[in-house]
Amino acid sequence: MKIRCVAIDDEQFALSAIEKYCAKVPFIDLVAKFFDPFEAINYIKQNKPDLLFLDIQMPGLSGIQIARKINYHPLVIFTTAHSRFAVEGFELNALDYLLKPFDLERFYKAVEKAKERIESQRVYKATPKEDDFIIVKIEYKNVKIYVPDILYIEAMDNYTKIFTYQKMYLTLQKLSNFLLLLPEKEFIRVHKSFIISLSKISYFTREEVVIESKKIPVGRSYAEKFLTRIRG
Fold it and tell me: Is the Cα torsion angle 206, 163, 37, 112 positive or negative in sign?
């Protein structure tokens, strides 16, 4: 199955580059491209593509503003001429960002991430297990969150944030409660404010781990146990 994607950019050369590269990748289907971000939003909400290429800097409405307005959670790859804008993009759980001008090799690396992400999600959905989810109280609802989707969990003030592939959940449950709910072999506490999924780590040092471009500190009192677990 091909990945359905939409590109939004106010520059013709950038849209043309994305269109050309999409045509060279067999698992990518560019279903629409837009100069006008407002027109793009309407199309995206109605058709729900899998992947968006969003230019960060556009007159009227930025790519980041578009991502915040969409009423579901597609994968997002931001495009930008300035690397400093990528930080804000990653705060929205963007899959990747492409620094203009980008070549086919860099483009392919980004869409390969999308392919891997979508395939992993399809596997989880196709083979559900009775113990593959936890129930979390969010506002006045009990919400089912699938364990394989969880990237990391962060304590912040009186709240706990659960970051998944699809979205972020906010709950009043304490961070320590999740150590009891989640499989011990798959999750570990690396800081007083963070629990992480070991399988989602991109790379790590003694001081930090990186998951989906998010840098997570490793506390001194947690480092030895973490390093022992991750190295087997």
Answer: positive
Strands 28-34 and 51-55: unpaired
What is the token pair recorded at 94?
């963007």
Q: Per-residue pLDDT tens for 71-123?
A: 777 888 988 887 665 555 444 567 788 888 899 999 999 999 888 878 766 65
Contact 61, 54 (CB under 8 A): no
Quote the pTM value: 0.57
Tell me, what CATH number does 208's domain have?
A: 2.40.50.1020
Check whether 28 has a pLDDT greater than 70: yes
Residue 197 has phi, psi (to 5 degrees) of -90, 120
Q: Minimal CA–CA distance to 77: which of 46, 57, 56?
A: 56
Q: Which two tokens stand for residue 42?
A: 């309407």
Q: What is the sign of the dihedral through the CA atoms of 196, 112, 21 and 31?
A: negative
Question: In which element (H, E) is residue 230 found?
Answer: helix 220-230
| Type of residue at 111 | V
One domain for residues 110 and 150 = no
Tell me if 70 sits within 8 A of 44, measured CB to CB. yes
Say if CB 5 and CB 31 are below 8 A apart. yes
- Total structural domains within the chain: 2
- Domain of 170 in residue numbering reads as 133-230
